[in-house]
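Sequence in, structure out. Go.
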Amino acid sequence: MAAPMLRRLCRVPQSLVWLRGSRAVRPGARGMLVAPRARGLFKEFFPESGTKTELPELFDRRRAGSSPQTVYCGFDPTGDSLHVGHLLTLLGLFHFQRAGHNVIALVGGSTALLGDPSGRTKGREALSAKCVRANAHALRRGLEALAANHARLFADGRPWGSFTVLDNAAWFQEQHLVDFLATVGGHFRMGTLLSRLSVQSRLKSPEGMSLGGVLLPGAPGL
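Output:
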């Protein structure tokens, strides 16, 4: 039922009533992080100390010289519709947009073709390139519709940030393997990757981890 419900939200603006409770919220830079976490939108921050000083200063646009920040979230096109599992991440993106910061919803049209070790004991089922393209197109349409309805129904007179929907297939499709390894591979630190519990569990499992999972570890936005 989750996918049809989100499709309906995309088509029928009046169904977005579940967002109205946040319309009157005008958080400061600190409350912008603390209040959503209290509501369950954010599970954790890293480093945790950043919520006390660094992040509030970064997101405080009232300070002299402060400029909008950019926040992104990846959406894997493993299905042809948004679903209830995307709800918290979308609320988080809208939260930052209303605070005046720019957000990017990034569909993983290329990385969906590769392995994904995050939180899984084995690689996800491979999808054909045609299926991934169709799913990515459907997700983009759903995200654009939700963003348009959000802006139309909940504008409060304050300047909002932008909401951009991208697909990483736009730049990965033209990327050659050797060029990628030469320009990007040098920035990967294996220690950081191997320290993740999800990666450790995959390495110890009978299925192991694919090369694609190592290069692009569950990050549709890379």
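Check: The chain has one domain: 2-215. The CA atoms of residues 185 and 215 lie 8 Å apart.
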